Amino acid sequence: MIISGACHYFRTHPDQWRTRLHWLRLMGLDTVETYVPWNLHEPSRGEFRFDGIADLELFLRLAAEEGLGVILRPGPYICAEWDNGGLPSWLTGRTGLRLRTSDPGYQAEVERWFGELLPRVLDHLETRGGPITMVQVENEYGSYGSDTTHLEWVRDLLVEQGIDVPLFTSDGPEDFMFTGGTVDGARATANFGSRPAEAFAELRRHRPDDAPFCMEWWNGWFDHWGDTRHTRDASEAASVLDEMLTMGASVNLYMAHGGTSFGVTAGANYEPPGAVAGGSFQPTVTSYDYDAPLDERGAPTPKFHAYREVIARHRDVPALEEFDEPLLPETTLLGEGTVVPLAGVFDVLAAAGREVTAPGPLSFEELGLSHGLVRYRATVRGPRTALPLSVDGLADRAQLVIDGRVEHVFDRNHPTTYDLEVPASGRTIDLIVESMGRVNYGRLVGERKGITGAVLHERQEVHGWAMTPLELGELPDLSGVGEIAGDGAGFRTFTFSASAPGDSYLDLSGWGKGYAWVNGFGLGRYWSVGPQLSLYVPRPVVVPGLNTVVLLELDDVGAAAPVLRPERVWR
Ligand code: GLA
């Protein structure tokens, strides 16, 4: 019987991995489970990254030191509310590829990536004295497709590359999911939140020889911008855990510690038309707290204690310790808490310089941009009377700027038009397009960002575009951009002083929509629609003394300097 918990190394600052793993063990777990996100490790084709928050081998060594086994889920598709379900946008932006199938173009890239990744994990397999006990083939393939040949190909690739610990698949407990998602030579497991007896009965019908294993026990849930926050009652959840352990089933808590989708790494969902009129794009919030037993900063919650008690009924659990991860002591806003404008976003885009021209608008992927903003500029010829301007194929949001002023905001979920009148001399329009998360589940995985269709004036396509991209995965270089005098959408900064590092939450209530960095570390996206109103600031990014916060505020909602709080703020 395995009692495991999911904790994604890529959602926790690496300096905090050790304590997170320690607390998982104190809860009574014997194993930690993690995905591996391809797009984190290969941000551009052929350029691999295994350092810092991408140092998978360090995470594996720390797990082993803590005495935890590891369940590894290398995908390469991982879902996980992670941008594009972990697939790199430079890959999915290629036209004609059939993702997650036997398409030779897709498989060649997977083979290249696994050829880079798998040799790094071989020494960490249990068969070589390491912690990895099981490795997953793909992820919930039955929720997606029925190309069994591809699933077999992924399985064989893992084996050929030297993975000699047990393989498994995981799927929702539905007939069609098990029939599409399971493969010979890999144990089948089930993903669900409640009613374990029914789910395991379904699993048994399909795989009578596979012992019951809940690979994703959804004991909490994630949140979308503009929606209400999801929580699950601790004692109700604990009783389901008890039910599973009493049956002798193995379980992986999804999540045991959720963490944060820092920077621009959060994913999104999409409800197809039929479920919602016109379909609906639902970007996922920055926090991946998941209402898990260890909260976003790693502190034990009532769920932690409830689960630990349940586990103690089934096996010995380690003695509890005090949780002593420091909270940020009193901070002082410097400069009387004044928020200083750094640079207007239009000026930054103008100074970015990397302008590309084309007759029609290009997508972010065609521009080689992962996430951020693109200024699309074109001149509409006149004279013409006021006619509706619309954006067909928008991902995800566009501010229409005319003569330096935001005149309208286009939103992919609520298509609108703007009446544009053009004088004889013509009119130059700018569309500042922002991407939110890439869809990580369902049909739209791999969709392109930016303007993927056309900008229409009445029925006529506007042609002759100049595009300037601004990457927001890292804090852009703002040197050389003139300071702006007043307000306006743009970068702002303020400083605070801390006597010692500690965890905190940057309270952005009162601000509009944007991005935040502390000492250059990308905390993630914020948005007044909630439900998340504060961003987690991990202790290791705070330094004693002077600390600098940069905000990119897109909606020009100015407010006082945000305060760092010891508690999270949810709507
Ligand atoms: C599925 C996926 C996970 C995650 C959960 C929801 O089960 O396999 O990666 O997306 O849904 O949190």
Automatic annotation (TrEMBL):
Which part of the chain is the Beta-galactosidase 1-like first all-beta domain?
361-471
Q: Which GO terms describe its molecular function?
A: beta-galactosidase activity
- Matching Pfam families, A to Z? BetaGal_ABD_1, BetaGal_gal-bd, Glyco_hydro_35
For this protein, the record's Gene3D superfamilies field holds: Galactose-binding domain-like, Glycosidases
The Glycoside hydrolase 35 catalytic domain, residue ranges: 1-312
Active-site residues are E140 (proton donor), E216 (nucleophile)
Q: Name one GO biological process term.
A: carbohydrate metabolic process
Q: Which residues form the Beta-galactosidase galactose-binding domain?
A: 493-547
Which controlled-vocabulary keywords does the entry list?
A: Glycosidase, Hydrolase
Q: Is Hydrolase one of the keywords?
A: yes
Q: In which family does this protein belong, per the annotation?
A: Belongs to the glycosyl hydrolase 35 family.
What protein name applies here?
Answer: Beta-galactosidase
Lineage, broadest ranks: Bacteria, Bacillati, Actinomycetota, Actinomycetes, Propionibacteriales
